[in-house]
Specification:
single chain; two-stranded antiparallel sheet; Mutator_transp_dom; Mutator-like transposase domain-containing protein
Length: 393
């Protein structure tokens, strides 16, 4: 049985916050009432009788066994009028979905505690209510995000404060790691493509496109973009500089696009900056023959196009997304088949908590546990609120 604390009662003198729900054993009621006399017959025979249950909400009646007078009955959890459901049922369904478990786990939980459970129909009903509520919360969160974005823009440019609308241009962004992986895949495909035509690009011959060289070229390509964001022209120059540098020889040095100065990564440019004679190109570890460069040039032209590079101006990766993905899969494991509704709940719930933090998430939901939960301390509130603001700065 789960009992709900009366939220309208006087606060406890203890400094510790009280829980909204408790799990009392049935025998506890007998001990509490064994010395309480009945106001009708004065016998100490008051008992709590349990009647039908609505999931985890049980109807309880205070009754005197001697005179059979009833003091009335009440459910152990209040009913949500708008949703025609009991609060404890919605809370438990939400809790089990949050840890990636469904109705079967809820039944196991109930059987271990030897308490009533809810059937699949009521579980699905609670999931539907959660889904509807999530859609309402999403609108609030979108408005909170807009407000936070506006405040961040005003902080940078105070002249925007009096404007009613701040338009934020959205452009599809690419992950640097994924873009670099495209180069890796494209180069390997080129090796296979020309192998079918009886032309060997790979192999052990000097200047060949070996697996080791492909991996190096992938890393150089990623670094060329990352080191020059957000200037796409500099990105393009750096990308072609790598290709030309790797194909240079003592007879035909091609370092026109390599960065100037003693801080350059190009040994040739460093020597010139120091007024020294450049060393031999035999020191170039990632040498590519002219034949190989000719075959892979179309790949570089495609991946150094303005269309691709403009998507990389933020210089971001999807590593942060992986953190969000892990939050989603904890709530909805990939190895278990789930319904579309449960997946939607997991995704929206994870996004809301990941972007806003737990406190802001509860504020958006107007959740009652925001005021009396054990885990929400002032320090945690400040920490999460700061994290929320930092998202847009």
């Amino acid at each position: 049985m789960v009992l709900q604390r009366d939220t309208l009662s006087e606060p406890s003198p203890s400094s510790e916050p009280e829980a909204s729900y408790i799990f009392p054993h049935k025998a506890v009621f007998s001990e509490l009432l064994q010395k309480v006399p009945c106001k009708y017959c004065t016998n100490c025979t008051l008992v709590i009788k349990q009647h039908h249950s609505m999931g985890y909400s049980t109807e309880m009646e205070l009754l005197c066994e001697s005179c059979h007078e009833s003091y009335g009955s009440v459910f152990s959890s209040f009913q949500e009028e708008a949703k025609n459901s009991h609060d404890i049922n919605s809370k438990l369904v939400s809790a089990f979905l949050s840890i990636g478990r469904g109705h079967a786990a809820l039944e196991t939980f109930s059987s271990v505690l030897n308490m009533p459970t809810m059937d699949r129909k009521n579980f699905a009903k609670c999931m539907h209510n959660l889904s509807v509520k999530n859609k309402e919360v999403m609108k609030k969160i979108l408005e909170m995000s807009r407000q936070a974005a506006r405040e961040a823009h005003v902080k940078v440019d105070a002249s925007l404060k009096n404007q009613e609308i701040i338009d934020v241009c959205h452009m599809t962004e690419e992950c640097l790691n994924h873009i670099a992986k495209r180069l890796d895949t494209s180069l390997r495909n080129k090796v296979k493509e020309w192998k079918v035509k009886k032309v060997t690009l790979g192999g052990r011959k000097q200047g060949s496109l070996t697996d080791k060289n492909i991996t190096k070229l992938q890393n150089y390509y990623r670094k060329a973009i990352k080191d020059n964001v957000p200037d796409t022209d500099k990105m393009k120059t750096a990308i072609y500089a790598i290709l030309m540098h790797c194909s240079s020889t003592d007879k035909k040095p091609m370092h026109g696009k390599c960065p100037e100065g003693e801080s350059s990564w190009c040994f040739y440019k460093i020597a010139i900056a120091k007024n020294e004679t450049p060393g031999s190109h035999s020191s170039v570890r990632t040498y590519l023959s002219p034949q190989v460069v000719e075959k892979i040039l179309p790949v570089y032209q495609r991946l150094a196009s303005d269309t691709i590079l403009e998507r990389c101006v933020a210089g971001k990766t999807q590593n942060s997304n992986e953190s969000l993905h892990s939050c989603i899969w904890r709530k909805c494991p990939k190895e278990v088949f789930v319904s579309k509704r449960r997946l939607e709940i997991a995704v929206t719930d994870a996004i809301e908590k990941h972007n806003l933090g737990y406190v802001k998430y509860l504020e958006a939901k107007e959740d009652s546990c925001l005021n009396d939960s054990f885990s929400l301390t002032i320090v945690q509130k400040d920490k999460i609120n700061d994290a929320f603001l930092r998202m847009f700065l």
